[in-house]
Design a protein that fits this description.
Layout: E1 2-6, H1 15-22, E2 28-31, H2 42-54, H3 61-65, H4 67-89, E3 95-97, H5 120-127, E4 132-134, E5 139-142, E6 145-150, H6 171-193, E7 199-203, H7 230-239, E8 243-245, E9 254-258, E10 261-265, E11 275-278, E12 288-291
Parallel strand pairs: 1-2, 2-3, 3-4, 6-7, 7-8, 8-10
Antiparallel strand pairs: 1-11, 5-6, 9-10, 11-12
Helix pairs in contact: 6-7
Length: 292
């Protein structure tokens, strides 16, 4: 079986990448998130991280950009994400997708206060994607394999460190983060226990210790910190999936082993990157990966 892994579009599906994919043979698609999340949000994101790291009051994107500009960006982001999802669906292969932290309004966040509210129009669009199944906090079985998905916003490990993140001195906030983390961990465990088939994990964020260190010296205040999720790594060690997909980190493209499981970041599609993975029928044979 051949799998096309792709993600981190940030609202852009380059024509060159589409053409390259059309020349490839594959059976399934795995999307690791961030179909929207256009680059115009970045100034606010960097400002927000910098303020949070210093323990300063946060500023909403509406206050940062102004009401008019904020509405324009929301509309642009929606259209960009919608078009990317439709273009993936037009590849005419069955597949699974998880949403990313950049896909606001495309998924419901079930682990605490309503960080994200999925829009009815967006839910309707996702339902009409005839070839793609959303498994953001769910699973499905394809070709005898259980694909277990976990996407959306995550409280990364660095947010819990007072050394790395002054915001964590806010005791009430850290309590909420810990509660969200515990609920998230229990949800992943419950998904895994619902299947006895061979498993493939589809994450948006990377597990701790693989493709997780932020490498962005330009202006990112989190440069050098981990954006990984510890309980993802624990699940990999405990349940030994056949394969793990992740994204989020535009700095990386590649495959590394974690607790014996291959972990693949296909690279950011916005820059023309993706991966084709060949799963051999014979378990003794190695998984083959072609990076685009």
């Amino acid at each position: 079986m051949k799998i096309l892994a792709i993600g981190d579009f940030q609202g852009v599906f380059p024509s060159k990448l589409k053409n390259k994919i059309k020349k490839e043979e594959f059976d399934l698609i795995v999307g690791v998130g961030d179909y929207g999340g256009i680059k115009e949000w970045r100034p606010w994101i960097i400002n927000d991280l910098a303020r949070a790291k210093r323990g300063m009051p946060r500023i909403s994107p509406q206050d940062f950009f102004g009401k008019k500009k904020f509405k324009e960006l929301l509309k642009k982001d929606f259209e960009a994400g919608k078009n990317v999802l439709k273009d993936i669906n037009k590849l005419n292969k069955k597949g699974v997708i998880v949403f990313g932290n950049g896909d606001d309004e495309w998924y419901s966040y079930p682990f605490g206060e309503k960080i994200i509210n999925v829009k009815k129009r967006n839910r309707s669009i996702v339902k009409r994607l005839s070839n793609l199944k959303n498994i953001t906090y769910g699973f499905t079985k394809l070709k005898g394999i259980s694909f277990i998905g976990f996407g959306g916003y995550m409280d990364i490990d660095a947010y819990f460190s007072k050394k790395d993140f002054k915001e964590s001195e806010d005791e009430q906030l850290i309590k909420r983060r810990k509660l969200r983390r515990e609920r998230s961990k229990k949800k992943l465990e419950s998904l895994i226990k619902k299947t006895n088939a061979p498993m493939i994990f589809v994450f948006h964020y990377p597990p701790k210790e693989v493709f997780d260190i932020i490498r962005d010296k330009k202006d990112n205040p989190m440069n050098g910190k981990s954006a990984g999720i510890k309980f993802f790594a624990e699940a990999i060690k405990k349940y030994e999936p056949l394969l793990v997909f992740c994204g989020h980190m535009h700095e990386y493209q590649g495959m590394k082993k974690l607790h014996g499981a291959p972990v693949i970041n296909p690279g950011d599609a916005e820059k023309g990157k993706a991966a084709i993975i060949t799963l051999p029928e014979n378990k003794k044979e190695k998984i083959k990966v072609k990076f685009i």
